[in-house]
Amino acid sequence: MSYRRGALIVLEGVDRAGKTTQCMKLVQALQQSGRPAEMIRFPDRTTKIGQLISAYLEKKHNLEDHTVHLLFSANRWELEPMIRQKLEQGISLVVDRYAFSGVAFTSAKPGFSLEWCMSPDVGLPRPDLVLFLELNPAVAAQRGEFGAERYETSEFQKAVMQRFQQLMKDPSLNWQVIDAAKSIEDVHAEIKTHSEEAAEAAQHQPIAELWK
Ligand code: ADP
Ligand code: 2DT
To answer: Helix, strand, or coil here: 195?
Structure first.
């Protein structure tokens, strides 16, 4: 089969685990090994929906909890055609947070089930690999204080972590847990190995649908 699509690789993890640092390094490494690659991040704060989300995170205004959950999902769906197109053009996408953050953060609020939180993201492009950067809160604290954005408290982050643990039990996804306490270079080497394997396996597969 001649079909060679790009891979969809997602990085998730707690605050300050190194997601952004590692996304940038991975894009560079994939490009250097001859695979076209680009980085995207969610929320994408540049769109109109993203600006509403950004102002909410910066506590400039409040939004009802269901409403903001649906906006985060809409922010992914508005980029879905672009994501699909790039993958089909053979470009691999390295994504800083995706629907898993969406579900973990909202379902950490009282009264939200995992099922309800997952439903608006059902059918998005399914990642070929989800790397979870695991870091205990004490080590994260050594990398700097929490910022002033919404959700940046240790109690809430603990509840988020428990939701991530539940999501990681899903066998329909290729989850890989990475020890993010190692050095930047060691973490990168591990991520690169998993990503090259996943990209190799994905290139002749159709793009699957998330949670379907
Ligand atoms: P995230 O995107 O997960 O919040 P960042 O990539 O922004 O994390 O990293 C948070 C901070 O920790 C940055 O100052 C970064 O330089 C530092 N950092 C990232 N990875 C490591 C690592 N493996 N060891 C030590 N410090 C790191
Ligand atoms: P950063 O920009 O620092 O990653 O923070 N979030 C993210 C949600 O609540 N739902 C989502 O769908 C996504 C993608 C996680 C973004 C903050 O927004 C939270 C932290």
So the answer is: helix
Check pocket membership of 135 for ligand 1, CB cut-off 6 A. Answer: no
Confidence of residue 174 (pLDDT cuts 50, 70, 90): very high
The rounded Å distance from CA 4 to ligand 2 centre is 31
Nearest CA to ligand 2 atom 10: 102
Q: What is the pLDDT of residues 105-123, one digit of tens each?
A: 999 999 999 999 999 999 9
One DSSP character per residue, the chain reads ----PPPEEEEEESTTSSHHHHHHHHHHHHHHTT--EEEEESS-TTSHHHHHHHHHHTTSS---HHHHHHHHHHHHHTTHHHHHHHHHTT-EEEEES-HHHHHHHHHTSTT--HHHHHGGGTTSBPPSEEEEEE--HHHHHHT----SSTT-SHHHHHHHHHHHHHHTT-TTS-EEEEETTS-HHHHHHHHHHHHHHHHHHHTTSPPPBTT-
| Check: complex ipTM more than 0.95 | yes
